[in-house]
């Protein structure tokens, strides 16, 4: 990347103005970028071109891909509802390799360790770059500067926005479905690979040039609920297996036994209670990670004790959230993804357990934003800094190892709390400056660590609310110093000049660059 | 010293915040350091600097050293390195890291000892956070938790931990080895503000006195101030019979604990959850402790996933006169505190007693009654203790007199 194509954005980071040949806008600030014009359009379809009997079945995925116009340079998207149990994405690029395709773009809604085989397709030129998330080995590969193109990291909401804007044009969407009919109606609540919702693929089904639904569970028409509508689907394919069930959802969710995580969860719940956030009708989102999961359990305890009820909870749903719904401790679950079989059952059978999509949840081009209506969200991070900026994609050594997920989108809630250990394996998590800014500090309100809680000085209201609390409220600088007294002050790793990936903000602007890691 | 190559520390997939060091003295060539560290990018330079400083201090000028590090803190690396050096040469002056000011506090004989968290003395990964869970005491364990071959290196690690790990106000305890090895442990640990020494498998007054004699000589040599308390642990049939003798053997014995695993083995019976087999020993010990005016402390509850069982056991112990229990997992602390804490009913009653008593004192009455029951000095004393504990455990406000009624 030429230096002259880099500009400094509103959070002081140098970011590229050109990404894989396309123009990019530098981050301008929260809510500052308001593009005008019209959203991306899809080619006009005519129903006369499709079988009158509704049977869009094609014998194989390979045939479907060829019919859908697979050729050099196209962008193929997949969804991540099967998490680490997805088998379809790898098959797509194996087929593409077999057909001699080059320079494809993979646009998953997220990648997982099971997608490690894509590395060989990056190496042999079948895949040019990835737009989505790059986890684990894929992230490492990208960090080492080995990917031909520049990676693009987006939030779930940002992905919807990018597709709508035409910034991410999907040529072929492949939607693996636990249940589908031959017309292409599909959902995630029936079948042996049931995963709950399929809505991470919603934008793909609406905006891709061609849409292929792949299932191992062909249902008679109509397959309802139609989370994916057959009227958006070009071809359907039946295969033996779309995913590995035990890697998609867990049979049961276990509460963490880690005393460190439990302590963080308890402190976070206490903070919410003492700050007056927990009250009748309040809404919250707590993810599926060990700490977040336990926070939900502490919330439930507090609500029970006080005879209160939460208005709605945002999922990632699991057994414990479902229990809250069934015990009347929350009114609704608005669910983006489902983590265990209790969640799947509840979504299928309970009208108050609603499947949401990135569009309903937090799309930048929506007419309003659910995310900003939620009272409190509990999120993770790899690092934060003295300005409360947060990083979720890289580690302090510069390696890209995680995707953004819904993290950026959730920051818009009324109170964003990050419970984090003050250090991990001797590495402090509070830095002078985060390695990669994924979220600006103005949206991050509270950092809960086992050794103290830092409240963003911008939130004087929260500071006032907990003034008399016995909780250890401390300035963030003091927490950083405490960590460094224990661990020592870490040296700053030097990173290369080459930008290997761009991190998009929820509005499509570039908030930061991920640099090549230079070993040694 | 014939040995040429020395090893110290731990390695393996489950090891955290530790390092494994091998050291070989050489005739020339200076210090050849090979560091493979998980946190090398952040701390590689500072680790190398530290190692050289330690080696110079210990009088090592030529050696080849390899370090496999998984995020060990400086005090751990220093202890491991010193352990290696001590295997190959005589060390004149130990390398002792700074004593952090946060650890300069004292304990008291009567303080609450509901929970004491055992931390294995050679497992540094569990040390750094030991103090954050709110246990009343933290025990760095040199005895059963440390393999025989690791005793020497553990002693140095515990010494350094006492100086560098923040105990966050918990009572600072060390369980030494059985005598006579335990006497060597004392040599290393006593100068570093140890509040309580736990003496395992104690069977006689003489053992307590031997420990005290050793402590006194160390303290005199180093001109140390502050009290060192003892908590003998009784783990045999003979020990139980001599419980009173042990509990009253010295001024600084503040508590006596029972260790039921070994006691049951000595008795030749299985230890059960119901605990019928140890009923006698526990009652006898509680009685002996009361007679000697020290705290009776119960054995650890080893199934750390069984919270319900733990709560039941604690309530039973409390009803027998025990005032504390050992923990092997931080998740046990909260249930233990909640169960030992005065219950709501008890606090309400204690408040009423104290109110009536204070009122009577104001009006100059000697004997008072609450309802139909006479309130005398021991009843008041017990009520005051309940209220103090309720306040300390956050169950009652300090201003309770003005807050309600």
Highest-level CATH class of the largest domain in chain B: Alpha Beta
In the CATH hierarchy, the third-tier topology of the largest domain in chain A is known as Glutaconate Coenzyme A-transferase
The CATH architecture category of the largest domain in chain B equals Alpha-Beta Barrel
Sheet with the most strands, sense and barrel status of chain A: 10 strands, mixed
| Helicity range of chain A | 10-25%
Low-confidence stretches of chain A: none
Radius of gyration of chain A, rounded?
A: 23 Å
Give the topology string of chain B: H per helix, E per strand: EEEHEHEEHEHEHEHHEHHEHEHHEEHH
- What sort of overall outline of chain B do the alpha carbons produce when their principal axes are compared? elongated
DSSP helical segment count of chain A: 15
- Tell me the distance between the termini of chain B: 75 Å
Main sheet strand line-up of chain A:
5-14-13-10-6-7-8-9-28-29
Distance between the termini of chain A: 22 Å
Task: Give the oligomeric state.
Answer: heterodimer
Into which percentage range does the β-strand content of chain B fall?
15-25%
The tally of domains of chain B stands at: 3
Q: According to CATH, what is the topology of the largest domain in chain B?
A: TIM Barrel
């Amino acid at each position: 990347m030429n230096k002259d194509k880099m500009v400094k954005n509103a959070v002081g980071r140098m970011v590229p103005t050109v990404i894989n040949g396309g123009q990019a806008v530098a981050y301008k600030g929260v809510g500052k970028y308001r593009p005008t014009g019209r959203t991306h359009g899809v080619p006009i379809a005519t129903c006369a071109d499709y079988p009158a009997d509704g049977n869009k079945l094609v014998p194989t995925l390979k045939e479907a891909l060829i019919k859908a116009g697979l050729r050099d340079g196209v962008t193929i998207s997949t969804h991540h509802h099967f998490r680490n149990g997805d088998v379809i994405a790898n098959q797509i690029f194996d087929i593409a390799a077999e057909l001699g395709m080059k320079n494809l773009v993979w646009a998953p809604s997220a990648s997982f360790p099971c997608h490690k085989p894509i590395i060989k397709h990056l190496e042999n030129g079948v895949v040019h770059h990835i737009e989505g998330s790059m986890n684990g080995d894929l992230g490492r590969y990208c960090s080492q500067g080995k990917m031909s193109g520049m990676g693009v990291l987006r939030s779930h909401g940002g992905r919807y926005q990018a597709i709508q804007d035409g910034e991410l044009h999907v040529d072929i969407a492949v939607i693996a479905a636990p249940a589908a009919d031959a017309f292409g109606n599909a959902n995630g609540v029936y079948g042996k690979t049931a995963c709950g919702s399929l809505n991470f693929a919603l934008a793909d089904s609406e905006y891709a040039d061609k849409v292929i639904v792949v299932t191992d569970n062909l249902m008679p028409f109509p397959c309802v609920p139609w989370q994916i509508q057959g009227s958006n689907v070009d071809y359907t394919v039946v295969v033996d297996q779309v995913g590995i069930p035990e890697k998609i959802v867990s049979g049961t969710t276990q509460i963490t036994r880690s005393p460190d995580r439990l302590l963080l969860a308890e402190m976070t719940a206490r903070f919410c209670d003492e700050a007056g956030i927990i009250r009748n009708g309040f809404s919250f989102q707590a993810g599926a990670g060990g700490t977040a999961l336990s926070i939900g359990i502490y919330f439930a305890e507090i609500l029970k004790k006080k005879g209160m009820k939460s208005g709605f909870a945002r999922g990632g749903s699991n057994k414990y959230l479902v229990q809250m719904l069934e015990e009347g401790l929350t009114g609704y679950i608005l669910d983006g993804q489902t983590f265990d079989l209790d969640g799947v059952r509840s979504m299928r059978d309970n009208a108050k357990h609603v499947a949401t999509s990135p569009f309903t949840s937090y799309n930048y081009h929506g007419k309003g934003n659910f995310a900003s209506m939620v009272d409190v969200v509990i999120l993770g991070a790899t690092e934060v800094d003295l300005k409360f900026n947060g990083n979720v994609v890289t580690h302090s050594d510069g390696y890209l190892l995680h995707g953004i997920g819904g993290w950026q989108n959730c920051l818009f809630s009324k109170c964003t709390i990050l419970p984090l250990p003050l250090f991990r394996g001797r590495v402090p998590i509070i830095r002078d400056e985060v390695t990669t800014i994924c979220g600006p500090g103005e949206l991050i309100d509270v950092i809960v660590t086992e050794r103290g809680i830092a409240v963003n000085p911008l939130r004087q209201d929260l500071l006032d609310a907990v003034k008399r609390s016995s909780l250890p409220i401390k300035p963030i600088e003091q927490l950083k110093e405490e960590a460094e007294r224990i661990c020592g002050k870490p040296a700053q790793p030097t990173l290369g000049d080459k930008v290997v990936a761009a991190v998009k903000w929820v509005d499509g602007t570039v908030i930061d660059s991920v640099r090549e890691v230079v070993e040694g | 010293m014939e040995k040429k190559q020395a090893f110290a520390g731990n390695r393996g997939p489950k090891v955290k915040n530790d390092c494994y060091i091998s050291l070989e003295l050489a005739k020339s060539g200076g210090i050849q350091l090979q560091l493979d560290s998980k946190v090398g990018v952040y701390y590689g330079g500072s680790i190398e600097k530290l190692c050289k400083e330690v080696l110079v201090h210990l009088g090592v000028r030529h050696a080849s050293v390899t370090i496999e590090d998984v995020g060990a803190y400086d005090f751990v690396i220093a202890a491991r390195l010193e352990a290696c050096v001590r295997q190959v040469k005589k060390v004149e002056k130990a390398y002792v890291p700074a004593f952090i000011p946060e650890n300069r506090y004292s304990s008291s004989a009567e303080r609450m000892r509901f929970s004491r968290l055992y931390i294995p003395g050679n497992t540094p990964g569990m040390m750094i956070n030991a103090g954050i869970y709110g246990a009343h005491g933290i025990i760095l364990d040199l005895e059963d938790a440390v393999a025989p071959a690791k005793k020497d290196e553990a002693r140095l690690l515990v010494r350094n931990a006492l100086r560098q790990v923040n105990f966050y106000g918990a009572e600072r305890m060390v369980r030494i080895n059985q005598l006579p090895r335990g006497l060597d442990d004392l040599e290393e640990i006593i100068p570093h503000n140890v509040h309580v020494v736990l003496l395992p498998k104690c069977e006689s007054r003489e053992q307590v006195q031997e420990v005290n004699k050793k402590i006194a000589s160390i303290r005199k040599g180093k001109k140390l101030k502050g009290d060192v308390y003892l908590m003998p642990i009784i783990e045999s049939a003979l020990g139980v019979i001599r419980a009173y003798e042990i509990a009253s053997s010295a001024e600084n014995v503040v508590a006596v604990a029972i260790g039921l695993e070994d006691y049951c083995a000595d008795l030749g019976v299985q230890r059960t959850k119901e605990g019928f087999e140890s009923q006698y020993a526990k009652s006898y010990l509680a009685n002996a402790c009361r007679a000697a005016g020290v705290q009776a402390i119960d054995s650890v509850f080893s199934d750390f996933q069984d919270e319900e069982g733990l709560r039941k056991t604690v309530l039973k112990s409390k009803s027998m006169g025990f005032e504390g229990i050992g923990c092997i997992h931080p998740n046990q602390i909260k249930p233990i505190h909640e169960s030992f804490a005065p219950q709501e009913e008890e606090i309400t009653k204690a408040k009423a007693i104290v109110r009536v008593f204070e009122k009577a004192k104001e009006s100059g009455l000697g004997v008072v009654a609450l309802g139909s029951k006479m309130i005398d000095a021991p009843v008041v004393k017990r009520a005051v203790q309940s209220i103090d504990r309720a306040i300390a455990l956050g169950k009652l406000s300090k201003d309770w007199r003005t807050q309600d009624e």
